Amino acid sequence: MNYRFTAEYQSLIVSALLQDSTLLVSSRDALRPEYFENYSEQEIIRLLLEFFDKYRQKPGRDTVVQIVYDRATKIGLRDGDRDKLVTDLYRIYSIPLQTADIHRIRDQVAQFGRIQALKIAMMDSINLITDFEKGDDTVQLEGVEKKIQKALIVGAAKNIGIDLVTVLPNMRALCTESDLGSSDRRVSTGYQTMDRYLKGGLGGGEIAFVMAPSNKGKSMVLVNLAAAGFKQGKKVVYFSFEMKEPEIASRLAANMTNCEISKVQENDCVYLQKIRDLSICFDKRNLRIIYVKPSEATANNLRSILMSIETLEGWTPDLILVDYLDEMAVPPAGKKGDDSYNAYGRLASELLDLAVVYRCPLWTASQVNRDGYDKEKAPSLDTIGRSMQKIDKAEFVVTIIQSESEAVEHKMQLKILKNRRGPGVGWRIPCRAELAKAQIYEVTQ
User: Fold this and answer.
1) SS3 of 202, please?
2) Which parts of 28-141 fold into alpha helices (H)?
3) CA 141 to chain centre
4) In this predicted model, what pLDDT tens digit does every residue of 141-184 receive, in sequence order?
5) How far is the C-alpha of 354 from the C-alpha of 262, rounded, in Å?
6) Cross-sheet strand order for the sheet of 319-323
7) Taking the CA atoms of the chain, what radius of gyration do you get in angstroms?
8) pTM over the 0.85 mark
9) What is the Cα–Cα distance from 91 to 88, expressed in whole angstroms?
C-alpha cells in the first residue's frame, strides 16, 4: 500500500517513532511538530523530540503519558483536552505496524520532512513577497531563496566521515578515488610552477585568490586561468561583476589566438583565420561568460544561474571564476557591530560552498591597499592579509608583483603567499605580461 503523506501515513510515522527505538535517531533532522496535520500528533512529536534532545533516547509509553500530564499542568491545558491527547496517544500506540511499514517509513521519512518543510517555506515566501509588494522596505527578497534552500536540505544524508583504522592500509586509494581529492577534479592553472605546488592544479571544492592592488592585472590573470581550463577541454563559467561580457570575451579570444585585443574587436583577417584553424577544437567545449550587476552578485544568485545552465543545457562547470569577490553584494551582518572583515569572510565562505556543491575549483580575486605592498617588492600575508578573513578560506593565494620598470619591459612576477598543501610559499614565478594580447605566461628559466 502506498500511503503517500496523507493523514493516515502521518499517524503511521508517529506510531513508528513511538515504538521503534532506532527510527528517531536516524530521522531526527527530518521531523518538526508543524509538519503534522493533527494537533495531538503535533504535541506528541513535540514532547518526543524534547525528550530525545535532552536524554538522547526514546521514552517509553508510560513516560510519554506522564510527560503529557506534566505539560498539561504546566501550560494550563483543560482536562478534556488533556484526556483527548492521552486517548489519541494510546490510539497511535495501538496501530498495528508490519515490518514493511517500518521499512517504508524509514525510507520515506526524510522525503516527508523535506516536502512538509518546502510547503511551509513556500507559504512564508508568498507572505514575504506580498509584504514587499505592499511596500515593506524591511523585506529582503534574498530570504525567499534561503528559505527554499534550507527546506531542501531537511533530512539530507549526513556525512559521518571516514574510519582512520579502515583506510590506513590503503591511503593511496583514499587520496586518489575521493571526489575532492581525485586528479580528474583538478584543473591545471596553465602555470607550470603553480601546478607543481598544487599537485596538478586547484582541486574540486577548493577556492583560490589572486591578490593585488587596483590595475595590477587581477582580472587578466583570471582570464588566463579561464583560457587554460578551456584549452584542457573543461567546462568553464566566468562571472564578471565589473567588465561586461564583450570585454571579457575579447580578452579570451586574444589570449587563445595570440592576437591583440584591438585586432580581435575589429575582426582582423589574421584573427579570423586563426579562429577558423582553432574551430575544430571547440566541439563539446563550454566557456560561458556571465555579467552580473554588483547589486545582484550574491552566491545564491550565482548558484541559481548555474542551476539554470544545468537545467536548460545539461552541463555543470568544471571550473568557476569570479571576477571578483570585492564587487559582490555584502551579505547581511551576522551580528551587531559586524565589520567588513567578517562580511568578506562570509562571502568567501559562500563561494567556497559553491565550489563544494559543484565539486570544482573556484578562482577569484581581491583588491588590497598599497600599505606595505611596495616594501622591497615583498608582500606577504602579514602585510596584505592581516584584516582579510577571506584568505582563511583559501587553499591557495597568489599575488602580483610588478614595478614600473618591469611594466615597461612586459615583465611580472606571481608570488605564492599561501598553499594549504605546504610547499612553494614565498616562491616567485617570473612571467611575461603581454597585456595587449591578454597573455600572462610563465617564463621558463
Assistant:
1) strand
2) 39-55, 61-75, 79-93, 99-133
3) 19
4) 777 877 887 888 787 776 566 677 777 677 667 665 554 444 46
5) 35
6) 287-291, 236-240, 319-323, 362-367, 207-212, 396-401, 411-419, 428-434, 439-442
7) 28
8) no
9) 5
